[in-house]
Amino acid sequence: MKSKINWILKNLHLFISLSIVVPTAIIYGSPSILTKYLNIQVNTVDFSNMLKAIMCLYLGISIVWILGIWKTQYWKIATQLNILFMLTLAIGRVLSMSMDGFPTGGYIFGIIAEFVLGFYSIFQFKKYSRNE
């Protein structure tokens, strides 16, 4: 029982990231959902194409996280990717907020969640890399 709890705790950052990123990917790839819930109008094929590419990028990164959860030899790379993914998204949002203004509440939540997950992933990486 204790080893299962340790396994969950070790992978918690990846589980949380998956639970946020996979639905976000699907939302980004679904123009009708974007229009309805996020004040984003998809009115060109190029914009739709860009959003589908982002959707697949998010899903591809999620596959690496899943590999990191189930195959211990991929845990470090999955965690490093999580750090890079979350912190670069957060930094991009900070850059946009400083240049473009404040976005809607969902994106404000996003920046907070990305910073928290990025720094939590650094903590996890340091904690569990030391033990191996």
TrEMBL record:
The keyword Transmembrane helix applies. The chain crosses the membrane at residues 12-30, 50-69, 81-99, 105-123. Keywords: Membrane, Transmembrane, Transmembrane helix. Coiled coil: none annotated. The keyword Transmembrane helix applies. It comes from the Bacteria. This is DUF4345 domain-containing protein. It comes from Flavobacterium bernardetii.
